[in-house]
Amino acid sequence: MGTKVAGRGDLESPEVVSASPTPPLLLASTSPQRRAILEQLGIPYEVVAPDYLEHDPPDTEVVELVRAHALGKARSVADQAGDRPVLAVDTAVSLDGTIFGKPTNATDAERMLEALAGETHVVVSGLCLLTPGWELVAHDSTRVTFRRLTPRDLAANLAQGEWEGRAGAYAIQGRGAALVERIEGDYLNVVGLPAALLVRLLAQRFMGLYGFG
Question: What is the mean pLDDT of residues 173-190?
Answer without folding.
Answer: 97
